[in-house]
Structure formats: C-alpha cells, structure tokens
Design goal:
Pathway: Cell wall biogenesis; peptidoglycan biosynthesis. The structure is a single chain. This protein starts with a helix and ends in a 13-residue tail after the last helix. A ten-stranded mixed β-sheet has the order 25-28-29-30-23-22-21-31-24-32, with helices on one face. A five-stranded antiparallel β-sheet has the order 1-9-8-4-5, covered by helices on one side. A four-stranded antiparallel β-sheet has the order 2-3-7-6, with no helix packed on it. The protein has about 400 residues and is mainly β. The protein contains five helices and 32 strands.
C-alpha cells in the first residue's frame, strides 16, 4: 500500500507539471461550449514554507468530485478521508512541524476534463514543544476491567480541546468513553462501563503539530498498547466484616476482614468504587502527622499490601484473626488473614474494582483512582472537547475525537 501510494504521487506529480492544474485527455469535437474543468484547492497552499501545522491538510474540489488524493511526508502516507460527496478530503490529524509534504489530487466531472493539482509545501517549525511525560497503564501492561487511561504532559496545556481531539483510543470491543481533565497537565480516559475483559487497547496521542499553548506545539506522536485481563471485582462490606472476590462472574474467594475503626475521619475506611493502584510486599506504613512518642504513632512493615487510594488505604495482611469477621479495628485499611491477603495480592492487577460499603466517609473521585465515583454525566463534563463543541468554539478541522 505504501509503495502504491508513493508511485501514485509520482505519477500525478509528473502529470501535474509542477503543481499547475491542467486538463488531461480530450473529447469529441462539437460546436458546444466545452465544460469547465473542476477547480482544486489545497490548504496549506502549495509552495508555502511556513504553513501552520495545527490546521491540518484540506483538499477541496469545486465543480467536480475528487477521484484521487495522495499525500506524503517523509515517504509515509498522510492519513485522511473523503466526505460523503467526495468534494472535501481532510487529514485525520494535524501536521508535523518543520516537515515537507508532497500532495497530489485529481478531480473529475461528468463529460468534462479532469484537473490534477500537485506540489509541495513545508510546515513551520515549533518554537517550543510538548509531549507525554508519563502514562498509565504502562506499555504492554495487563490491567483490570476498571483501569483508566491516564496521560501526564510535560508542560501545562492551555488549548485542552485541541489536545483532547488528538487523542485516540481503540479497542477490540469498542465502548463509549470520554476524556476528563484533572488540572492542566493530566487528562484521564474512562469508559462508561467497565472494559470487556481479555482484549487489547491501543492509545495514540497524535500530538505532532497540535497547538497546546502560545508558540507550543507537539513534536511527535506517541502510541502504546495494553491488555485488559480477566474480570476480577471485589466487594467489601464493613458492617458484616466480609470481602467477596469474583472472577469472571464466579466467586473466587470469601474473606473475613477488619476495616477502619471509624473513631476519627482519618481512621474511617472510605466507601465507594476503588481501583487497585499498586502493591508492595512489604509496604512501610507510618502514621501521618505524628512523630515517634505521640499517641497513635506507628511505623510498621506490612506484608502483601494492595493500595486502593491516595489517602493511605490498602488491602493487606494482618495477623489479628480475633477481629477479622467481627470488629473494625484498623486505622482505615482493610486487613485480612495473611494467607488470604497473600492470595489477593498475587491475583490483583492494577485497575481491579474494589467496592466498599457501610461507612460514613465517601471516597472522593480524585482520591487515587476514584474516577468511578462520578456519574457518567458528571464525568463527561470534564471533557474540554465536549465543552468547546457545546459552546460552538472553533477547533482545528479534520480531526477525529478519540472515542473507543
């Protein structure tokens, strides 16, 4: 396909005679006025040397339809698509800064000559650039069905709608999803419902040429792939002191637990839909805001600890079987019998949902990965692209929103 596209461009460039539109072919001689050839317009204009990359590539035909379009940069085809009337072709994404593009387009009309327009242009280089600083999941990681996609940028984003429009999520089982901005450097993708298990998901940030702030553009695109594993979900009931783990719809483990003693807000386990975030064996846990000798001070190494929030909550091992299944005596974590905690530790993937009920403290949506605490309506309110579209604001043309 790549070689065919390259050969087609070469042929059209020769036929076009250095980017001048010409009529190709001839018809029968009649006394009627010959039909006017179609008009082809290319933006950015051919021979430009400082074209704006953020506006993409647009080719239009007037008085006819586009029959052939080929665009290359660095020997690679430029992704794009025709509209239903075959009169407008747009690149899917913005253009690379400081790059040369070769373009050729043919337009035809019934009973008339064809028009071929071909040539080159160059985009202006970026004064400053931005890109991804970190991602979750990690490339190649296998995750749970509740896993979000978290992108951290290396500088603040002002034009959030333009950046969001350049983000693409594709999965083996397409699902409705949306991005939600959590500050100027982080955007999070969440599906409306949990991922379908056992599938691959590809995330591409088409950032090259995207305008992020005054004088700041993306320099390169970034892609990573992760896998959604088996469906494992857990429910913790702090009133009955029980935890049930289901895997692919079947009960995999029942555990007696002890949760936060709830004598203070700090010692109250949060209720809501948590996600497993990371784990360690052991994890050093130190009482926050206290020094050695203060009442309530502790400094412990805890085995088989799976983190579920940023406020210090874990599901972990503890040898206090006298309380497990009977009383809540912890500082806010959920503890279980050492052998069962070890099983949960070994079976957990990042992004496994853990729903906790029965306490008077709700998990905040931005406490760790508490994103499922927001209703879908609240979640999509955090999309800059949807907000811009609703307000009728202009966003760069020719770009495809990244919905899986």
């Amino acid at each position: 396909m790549r070689r065919a596209a390259t050969l087609r461009v070469a042929f059209l460039l020769v036929c076009a005679m250095a980017a001048v539109s010409v009529a190709c072919g001839c018809g029968p001689v009649t006394a009627e006025t010959p039909a006017a050839p179609p008009v082809v317009k290319i933006a950015p204009a051919l021979d430009s040397v400082r074209a704006r990359p953020g506006r993409g590539l647009v080719i239009r035909a007037t008085g006819g339809m586009l029959s052939e379009v080929a665009a290359l940069t660095g020997g690679e085809p430029v992704p794009g698509r025709l509209d239903a009337e075959r009169r407008v072709w747009r690149s899917d994404w913005t253009l690379k800064p400081g790059a040369e593009y070769t373009v050729a387009a043919t337009a035809t009309s019934p009973g008339g000559p064809a028009t071929v327009l071909a040539g080159r242009f160059r985009t202006r280089p970026a004064r400053e650039t931005f890109g991804l600083a970190a991602t979750a999941p990690l490339p190649g990681e296998t995750v749970g069905v509740g896993m979000p996609v978290i992108l951290d940028f290396d500088r603040p984003i002002e034009d959030k709608a333009a950046v969001e429009r350049a983000l693409e999520v594709r999965s083996g089982h397409p699902a409705e999803g949306a991005w939600h901005w959590a500050g100027d450097t982080r955007v999070i993708y969440r599906t409306r419902r949990f991922w379908t298990p056992r599938q691959r998901v590809t995330v591409t940030a088409h950032l090259a040429g995207v305008h992020a702030a005054d004088g700041v553009h993306g320099a390169v695109d970034s892609t990573f792939v992760f896998t959604v594993g088996r469906a494992q979900t857990s429910v913790v009931d702090t009133r009955t002191h029980r935890m049930t783990v289901e895997r692919d719809g079947r009960t995999a483990q029942r555990m007696a637990i002890s949760a936060g003693m709830a004598t203070t807000r700090e010692y109250t386990t949060t209720s809501g839909v948590h996600l497993t975030m990371d784990k360690g064996d052991p994890v050093r846990m130190i009482s926050p805001g206290r020094e050695k000798g203060d009442p309530g001070f502790y400094d412990l190494l805890i085995e088989h600890a799976v983190r579920i929030s940023d406020s210090g909550e874990y599901i972990h091992a503890k040898d206090n079987v006298w309380a497990q299944g009977r009383r809540n005596v912890s500082h806010g974590c959920v503890n279980a019998r050492p052998d069962q905690a070890a099983w949960f530790y070994a079976s957990s993937l990042r992004g496994d949902p853990v729903t906790i009920t029965g306490t008077g403290r709700e998990l905040a949506w931005d406490n760790g990965w508490g994103f499922w605490q927001l209703t879908w309506e609240r979640w999509i309110e955090g999309s800059a692209l949807r907000a811009a579209d609703a307000a009728g604001e202009r966003v760069p043309p020719g770009l495809t929103p990244g919905l899986g």
